[in-house]
Write a structure and sequence with these properties.
The protein is α/β, with parallel strands linked by helices and 199 residues long. The protein is built from 7 helices and 8 strands. The chain has a domain of 89 residues.
Length: 199
């Protein structure tokens, strides 16, 4: 009887803000339960580190994520609406231009890039392969290093708008917008049932 090939021990490092914003920008919401199952079944992910900007009052969400099998790493957040900014700090941009740019940015910023890279490096001896879940070009150096070590399995980008810095790894990029049917969240409570009105 042939020996079964053992799947590599794979860790995922998830930039949750990039993932959330990237899917919502395409008009859908990720089902975190389905996503954890997908990582387990398709990519043999044993540890799924999820990096989240901490918001007071969201403790229930963080506990839920933990119950789903994510290792939640929280980063303190900064409310950017309360940070005073002079014209010079804004790069001399007009208020109209600045306001338009601000519309595209979250009001609360919790940059998790450093934490994600740090954990990926700290855990390096413990995994065979790593998956980076983000379309952010800030992870180019991490992806490059993991590739050199033979440890980069995949980059899961939320949509087609991932950074051009990640183009060298195109063969390893999986676009999650192409898996929308499989991974989208559906709030069944909002959908009227076909049996409505029956006694």
């Amino acid at each position: 009887m042939p020996r079964r090939h053992k799947a590599p021990n794979t860790y995922a490092f998830i930039d949750s803000q990039n993932l959330n914003l990237g899917t919502q920008r395409m008009g859908w919401k990720l089902d975190w339960r389905k996503f954890r199952q997908y990582l387990r079944d398709k990519h043999h992910v044993t540890h799924a580190y999820t990096f989240i900007g901490y918001l007071s009052g969201n403790e229930q969400l963080y506990e839920y994520m933990h119950e789903l099998g994510y290792l939640v790493v929280l980063k303190p957040t900064l409310d950017v609406t309360k940070v005073p900014e002079t014209d010079q700090e804004a790069g001399g941009k007009s208020k109209a231009v600045k306001d338009k740019e601000d519309d595209d940015k979250p009001a609360v910023k919790g940059n998790v890039d450093a934490e994600l890279v740090l954990h990926a490096m700290k855990e390096l001896p413990n995994y065979d392969k790593a998956i980076i879940v983000s379309g952010d070009g800030d992870f180019f150096t991490l992806a490059e290093y993991l590739e050199q070590q033979g440890k980069l399995a995949q980059i899961l980008a939320p949509n087609w708008q991932y950074s051009s810095l990640l183009k060298p790894f195109e063969s390893k990029i999986i676009r999650l917008d192409q898996l929308r049917r499989q991974l989208a969240y559906h709030d069944r409570r909002k959908r009227p049932g076909k049996t409505q009105g029956r006694q």
